[in-house]
């Protein structure tokens, strides 16, 4: 069993947050940690024994970030059976936009439509707030992992 930290990013913020989560978890667990860009994920190779933490930003007016686009397209085209796959989500967005955090929500909808299940609290960072995205995500991650138990 591994913890897979998967990120979808446009400008690199979600990748930085994923890396910070990896660093924080590495200090707390002996589990295998794997960080990867959603653009590189084989949608037919999800392991239901793994715990998936998905970190995803939003681009433009609620669009998927660049690196999540091929992932969602592959889910829609290949339609793998994801029954038994569980994941937690941390979305990044800006509440001054009408479609705040919609990029991550689109990833969630695509995964759930194929049988995967979201667990735990939906983590979010609002770029319009003074909060640091990594600080919020690092605090969120252990709670998200506990939701898999």
Provide the fold topology.
Blueprint: E1 2-8, H1 13-26, E2 32-37, E3 51-56, H2 69-78, E4 86-93, H3 102-112, E5 117-118, E6 123-126, H4 133-146
Helix pairs in contact: 1-4
Structural class: alpha/beta
Please work out how many helical segments DSSP would assign.
4
How much of the sequence lies in strands comes to 15-25%
| Distance separating the two termini | 13 Å
Bulk shape: globular
Q: How large, in whole angstroms, is the Cα Rg? A: 14 Å
Order of helices and strands: EHEEHEHEEH
Task: Give the helix level as a range of percent.
Answer: 25-40%
State mean pLDDT (0 to 100 scale): 95
Number of strands: 6
- Tell me the major beta sheet: 6 strands, parallel
Stretches where pLDDT is under 50 for at least 5 consecutive residues are: none
């Amino acid at each position: 069993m591994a913890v897979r930290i998967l990120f979808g990013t446009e400008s690199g913020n979600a990748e930085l947050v994923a890396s910070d989560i990896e660093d924080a978890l590495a200090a707390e667990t002996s589990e295998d940690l794997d960080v990867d860009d959603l653009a590189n994920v084989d949608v037919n190779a999800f392991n239901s024994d793994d715990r998936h933490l998905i970190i995803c930003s939003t681009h433009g007016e609620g669009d998927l970030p660049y690196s999540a686009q091929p992932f969602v397209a592959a889910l829609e085209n290949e339609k793998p059976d994801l029954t038994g796959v569980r994941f937690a989500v941390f979305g990044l967005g800006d509440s001054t936009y009408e479609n705040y955090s919609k990029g991550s929500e689109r990833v969630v909808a695509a995964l759930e439509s194929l049988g995967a299940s979201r667990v735990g609290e939906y983590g979010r960072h609002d770029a319009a707030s003074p909060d640091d995205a990594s600080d919020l995500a690092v605090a969120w991650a252990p709670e998200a992992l506990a939701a898999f138990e």
